[in-house]
Design goal:
This protein is of the alpha+beta class. The chain has two domains: 2-108; 126-443, Beta Barrel (Lipocalin), CATH 2.40.128. It has a ten-stranded antiparallel β-barrel. Strands 3-2-6-7 form a four-stranded antiparallel beta sheet, with no helix packed on it. Helices cover 18% and strands 53% of the residues. A hairpin with a 2-residue loop joins strand 10 and strand 11 (341-366). The chain has helices at residues 2-12, 16-27, 35-54, 58-71, 86-107; strands at residues 129-140, 146-151, 158-162, 167-180, 199-224, 230-234, 244-246, 254-278, 282-305, 310-338, 341-366, 372-394, 399-417, 425-443. Helix 1 runs antiparallel to helix 2, helix 3 (35-54) packs antiparallel against helix 4 and helix 4 (58-71) packs antiparallel against helix 5. The two termini are 60 Å apart.
Length: 444
């Protein structure tokens, strides 16, 4: 049995080794314990407790403190495994329980986590936190379509002959300032249903943010063929006679077609939230926000029809104003690398309504004819949400860096629908926005 304990402790050198030795010796039918085994077990349990304390691992720390308490009890059945006569066993038990009590006295009064060994874990009231961010954006726009074709003798044209690229790429910039509004910490709760999940600090904060993002598409389409025997249909923004129907295939084939789109959005928001720190180095953040955003969207679709010696240009423009309300949460885990350097990884999600109001214009220019145009408006309430993951690091003097990847359900994206009969209709749809950004922060 002495061999079993020695092998476990020597090879594993982990906290579990002490529990294995105690359990295996206590249950053996012919237990044997040497003084060296006892010293190793006490010292190893003590060193495990100190290491767990330094790392903020309060669950392991408390388990090792309980082990030391058991080892300091004179009637602990573990000490019955000493070999030798009664006088020798009593002397060893007295010596080892005293050794265990000495080790226990030096750790049982310690607070876990040790706040000086966990720099930056509890928030403070030093001042505002400024953050700047720059990143790349990929915006998936809703489906849009132009033109149509009409087979000979068909009762109505088929629309949607051409659908442009939906993926716009660009960049984003943002900045924020965060203020601590509430207390910087609180005493640990005496008990909780789950070991280690005691809150050890809370912070109430407010944050003001501004942001700007832009994305564009520049697509060279080339040739658009309505199909043999079909007429080419160009729906007009006013419907009916504001459009054109060109037969005489193949003279109606479009050449040198191009499409471009530019999207930009500028906005700001105000957040109020509460962050709770747990003993296991996790933090929980619940917050709410309200914000405003203004978006601009311009698109241009043009081409030439050499067979008719005509050119055409569709031009559409819109402005969208939005009010955004969000409720969100974030969960994070902090890792203490050193006294001066910590890292943090977290995930977040937020959801809420977006109230959008849009106004815009749609026009068609066709060689030899006056340009036709119409003014449009729309409004819609939709649900937007954002989710993402963030990895950050904090350095001395309040400096920090972070990398973040997020997904946003972008609402309020304009779509101009033309059916060739009625005037153009402006609709507000949702798209997908992915953002990868790098952030820098400083706390004064």
């Amino acid at each position: 049995m002495h061999g079993i304990c020695t092998r476990v402790a020597a090879t594993a050198l982990v906290a579990a080794s002490t529990a294995i030795c105690v359990a295996s010796i206590a249950q053996a039918q012919t237990p044997v314990l040497t003084e060296a085994d006892a010293d190793f077990l006490i010292d190893r349990t003590y060193s495990d407790a100190l290491f767990a304390l330094s790392q903020g691992n309060c669950i392991l720390f408390r388990a090792r403190v309980r082990d030391l308490k058991r080892l300091s009890e004179y009637r602990n059945s573990y000490w019955l495994n000493f070999r030798g006569d009664t006088l020798t066993r009593n002397r060893l038990v007295d010596d080892k329980t005293a050794r265990a009590k000495s080790r226990l006295a030096s750790v049982e009064t310690e607070d876990c986590p040790r706040r000086p060994l966990d720099p930056g874990y509890l928030p403070d009231l030093r001042g505002p936190d400024f953050e700047l961010s720059a990143g790349l954006v990929r915006l998936g726009l809703p489906k849009r379509s132009f033109l149509g074709f009409e087979p000979m003798g068909a009762p109505a044209p088929t629309l949607g002959l051409f659908s442009p690229d939906r993926n716009a790429t660009g960049s984003s910039l943002s900045g924020s300032i965060k203020f601590i509004l509430g207390p910087a910490g609180m005493q640990p709760y005496p008990t909780t249903p789950v070991e280690g999940f005691q809150p050890i600090g809370t912070t109430t904060y407010g944050k003001v943010s501004i942001y700007h993002s832009k994305a564009d598409i520049d697509q060279r389409v080339g040739t658009i063929d309505p199909g043999a025997g079909n007429a080419l249909v160009l729906p007009g923004p006013l419907g009916g006679l504001s459009g054109f129907n060109l037969g005489a295939y193949p003279l109606n084939i479009i050449h040198d077609a191009t499409y471009s789109a530019d999207f930009n959005r500028t906005g700001g928001r105000i957040d109020f939230g509460r962050t709770t720190k747990l003993q296991i180095s996790f933090d929980l953040d619940f917050y709410g926000s309200a914000g405003y955003a203004h978006s601009g969207f311009d698109e241009r679709f043009a081409g030439s029809i050499p067979g008719f010696m005509r050119d055409f240009v569709y031009t559409s423009s819109s402005n969208v104003d939005q009010l955004k309300v969000r409720a969100g949460f974030a969960v994070g885990k902090q890792f203490v690398v050193s006294q001066a350097f910590t890292t943090h990884v977290g995930v977040f999600a937020e959801v809420g309504p977006d109230l959008s109001w849009a106004r815009g214009t749609d026009s068609l220019a066709f060689t030899g004819f006056p340009t036709s145009s119409t003014a449009l408006s729309a409004q819609k309430t939709d649900i937007g949400f954002t989710t993402g993951v963030r990895l950050s690091a904090k350095f001395p003097n309040g400096f920090g860096i972070a990398a973040q990847i997020s997904y946003l359900r972008a609402t309020g994206l304009p779509v101009f629908e033309r059916d060739g009969v009625a005037p153009t209709v402006l609709k507000l749809e949702a798209g997908d926005m992915w953002t990868a950004s790098v952030r820098g922060s400083v706390k004064f």
